[in-house]
Amino acid sequence: MLRSARGLALLVAVIGCTWVPLTSEGENVRIRRASEVAACEKLGTTTSKTADRVVLFARTDRKVHDELESLARNEAAEMGGDTVVPTGPVSEGRQAFDVYRCGPG
User: Fold this and answer.
1) Domain at 60, CATH number
2) Residue 11 is part of which domain span?
């Protein structure tokens, strides 16, 4: 019984975890709306993917959303971008983003 309780506690902890750290470069990337990047240079697109379920349990929408944004920001930094714009909704743990270079701001 104690083993089952420990296993369940571990599973609940894992479901709540954020697995994607934001890099120091990614911290400098902003998330904006399409209307805010009209004067920016579009560098490309990226698609983020993370687990939306652990075993049989769905992860919270907030955790999935945060991880997708972290992945997009990290990737944008690697592409030389400083801004990402989501191009659609989260679906099955995936979301697409446009990557821009907007400069200081």
Assistant:
1) 3.30.1660
2) 2-101
Task: Report the candidate in 1, 2, 72 with the shortest Cα–Cα distance to residue 31.
Answer: 72
Report DSSP state, residue 91: B
Domain count, the chain: 1
Q: Answer left, alpha or beta for residue 3, where phi above 0 means left and psi between -120 and 50 means alpha.
A: alpha
Residue of 59, 66, 52, 57 lying closest to 16 (CA atoms):
59
**What's the pTM value of the predicted model, to 2 decimals?**
0.77
Q: Alpha carbon 80 to chain centroid distance?
A: 18
Q: In the 8-state DSSP scheme, what is residue 60?
A: P
pLDDT in tens, 27-51: 999 999 999 999 999 999 999 998 8
Joined together, the tokens standing for residue 84 give 């990402």
